[in-house]
Amino acid sequence: MNEVKVVVAHSERATLRVGDVFLKVDADQARIDVEVEAMALAPVPTPKVLWRKPPVLAIAAVPGTALGRLGEPSTASPAAWAAAGAAIGKLHDAPLPPWPGRAGQGLDELAADLDGECEWLVANGVLPADLVTRNRQVAEAALRPWTPVFTHGDLQITHVFVDGDEITGIIDWSEAGQGDALYDLATFTLGHEEHLGDVVAGYGTDIDLDVIRAWWSLRSLLGVRWLVEHGFDPFAPGCEVDVLRSRM
């Protein structure tokens, strides 16, 4: 009998692993719909869909291991990070998916959400005011018009699997859609700034590194409250709060 392993679980969704099968349970059926369609359209290795019966999606495990984890040093080679950059570039060059994704949120709305979270972080004593103010200033560079591309939307390094220097699969596509290419790159390198050069080299296109750093601040500021409320620890070494501190 295979062991049942809880990969992640919170009030919105849960993922279980049983042998070589992942069972994803999501309260929002639209996210499952996006995940299945995005994996079918993405020009990069993705998991095989075994079956779906709402609210459960069963997918096969991909070979290899995750490129790394937030808060821990990555043991993957520079070539593996560059290969990931190349895969991300291939995704961003693909035809746009037919749904809006993150690009559907206007800049004014995003700025308002950011200001609201900054106010909450300071008012509730979660983070020092100077830390929040500095990162809000850094985040301003991300609040600019962008040309939408096919984005993964939640491209954490735990979602990219490698075998040696080869990308074997990219998982968790429920946030995929039209969005900012630099948001994907920033999410992928969050907490691993030392590998940014390898990723950019593989990506193959000049990018604005100030915007990448802006998205690091913006994503972290927006994420702290959600992480705390869903049982995660943004204060763990190398995680979101340390990312914010690195901008000081």
Automatic annotation (TrEMBL):
Residues 41-203 form the Aminoglycoside phosphotransferase domain. It comes from the Bacteria. It holds the Pfam family APH. This is Phosphotransferase. It comes from Streptomyces endocoffeicus.
